[in-house]
Specification:
alpha/beta
Amino acid sequence: MGMWSIGAGAIGAAALALILANTDVFLAKPQKATLEYLEDIDLKTLEKEPMTFKAKALWENDGAVIMAVRRPGCFLCREEAADLSSLKPKLDELGIPLYAVVKEQVKTEVKDFQPYFKGEIFLDEKKKFYGPERRKMMFMGFVRLGVWYNFFRARSGGFSGNLEGEGFILGGVFVVGPGKQGILLEHREKEFGDKVNLVSVLEAARKIKPQTSASEKK
């Protein structure tokens, strides 16, 4: 009788843990970035002799859509990159560039990611685009039903990947207006494969107001 009670208690505790793991109770709440925070981020080009520049150069004149990639080799990240790239023709019509930032360069991971992403990619060594407060999803992600659904969706879509590089720090997507217009959309990945809504991206992009030059104001 005692063993049965212990067994039932253990099963109950495991079931409760599984239920809680599939709620947002234990998820780290994202801290929203300010425009000033994003503007001051140092980025590097991916050339043999990299050039360092401030992130504000990406959106200063025309605004931008920016993907902070969790891990280039991840098939879920490749799926989201392909989804965002499907917006490229409409973004081009609006005159808005599409960019991505990665937090590390591992082997040929960035090069292998580029076929999925139709924009320029830069290095964020200090992982600032993943902040102001970095959030991680560890092994709890593998007991979340939403994550398994995302796995199935991406696999069914023909996406594959590998396990190279750091993949626990969660990424996101930003739409930023030119000048001081500000952050028009900030999507923070809450679990592996939590993609941004493409309709929301386009809606935010259409709110971007072209920067008026000094000569045009006269």
